[in-house]
Known about the structure:
By secondary structure, the chain is α+β, with helices and mostly antiparallel strands.
Amino acid sequence: MKTKVLIIGAGPSGLLLSLLLKRKNISTIILEKQSSEYVANRIRAGILEPGTVKLLKKAGISNRVTKEGLKHNGFKVAHNNNIFDINLKYLANDCVTVYGQTEVTKDLMNKLTNENVKIIYNVPKINILNIEDKPLVEFDFNKTKESVRADFIVGCDGFHGISKSYIPNNIKKIYKKDYSFGWLGILSDTKPISDELIYINNKNGFALCSMRSKKRSRYYLQCEINENINNWSDDRFWDSLSKALPNDIKNNLQTGPSIEKSIAKLRSYVLEPMSYKKLFLAGDAAHIVPPTGAKGLNLALSDVDKLSSAFISFYEKNSELDLVNYSNVCLSRVWKTQRFSSWMTNIFHNVPKEDNFLKKLKHIEMENLLFSIHAKKILANNYLGKY
Ligand code: FAS
Ligand code: PHB
C-alpha cells in the first residue's frame, strides 16, 4: 500500500489529522491497534476550548457539537465550603463547550467512514522500518504481512504508543512528573448538581462536579495513587462525594447507578523534539497533562491543527518551513499548557505528606486567586486555551 501520510493511532489526534488532510485531498492511511468499538466507546475528556470547536468546524464535523454541546460561560471554585464564580465571559470574553471526547471521536469516525478514508483496526503490531527518505511500515493483518510506504509517518498513538521509541535516545529529551494521587471518576445518568462545573478543594482534597449533558453527570474524587476500583461501590462513591460538597449544595446531589467507574493516574510528560526526519508526533504520543485543567484533548488537537497546516503547505506550496518549525511551535504551547495544568493540579489537590510551608503557600495561592481579579483573568484565559 502507498499513501502520502501514514498515521499510527485512531484516537482524536489521528482521526482529526486524517480528516483535515482529506479536506485538501492529501491521502492518509490510519493503523489502529484496537477495534473500532473500543475506540468509539472510550470515556475521557469533556471540555472543549473555543479553539477546538473552531477546529471541528474547519474539519466539517461541527453539526452535533453545535446542536448538543453545552456552552458554559464559566465555572465555579469551591474552597473550604465557600463557592466562587469564575465568569469566563466577563473575565476573558469567551466560553467553553461541554461535549464528551467520546462524541468527538464518534463524529470523526462517522465522517471518515462516509468519506472512505482507510482506517485499519485491530493491528496489534506495527514495525516502522524507515523514517528517512521513503518511510516504510510493516504490520501483520489477517495472518498476512502488509506494508505501507508513505511520504511521512505521524505517531498519534498516545502515551503507550510505539512511535516515540523511533526517535533516537541521543536526540530525545523526556521531562516527566508522576503525581502522588489519582482521580476516581464516575459517569451516571443523573441530573448534574449544578449547571456549571465545580472544582472543589477542601480538607479531603480535590473533587470535580462535571457533566456530559443535562441528564448525564461526570464526577471525580481525588484518591490514593494505588486505589483499587473494586473497593469503591457506588454508595461509597456517592457518600464520599457528598462529604466533599459545600454545605449549600450538598442536598442537590442526585445519585444513581454508575455507567462507568475508573481510576486515572495523573502525570505530566513532555517528549522533545516532536519530530525526527520524516516522523512526527502529535497529541498524547508527545505529551501528557494532568486532567485538572481540562487540557489533554484540546492540546492534542492543537498539535493536529499545526501539523495538518504544515503538510498542506508542503503539498500545495512545496514549502517545508512549517514542517521544520512544527516541533518548536507546538512545544511552546505544550509548555504553557503544562504550566497551567500543573498549577491547577497543585492548588486543588492535597498532596500526601506535604510540608507545612508548601501547604500554607498553596492556601495563599488559592486565596490570591479567589480575591484578585487579575489572577482570575489569567485563570480564565488559560482555561480557554489563551496564553
Ligand atoms: P489517545 O491515547 O486518545 O489515542 C491513541 C490511539 O493510538 C488509541 O486509539 C490507541 O489504541 C492507539 N495506539 C496505541 N498504540 C498503538 C500502536 N502501537 N499501534 C497502533 N495504534 C496504537 N483530557 C482532558 O482534556 N480532560 C480529561 O478529563 C481527560 N481525562 C482522561 C482520562 C484518561 C483515563 C486518559 C487516559 C486521558 C484523559 N484525558 C483527558 C486526555 C485524553 O483526552 C487525551 O488527551 C486524548 O485522548 C489524546 O488523544 P490522542 O493523542 O489521539 O491519544
Ligand atoms: C470531565 O468532564 O471529564 C472533565 C472536566 C473538566 C476537567 C477534567 C475532566 O478539568
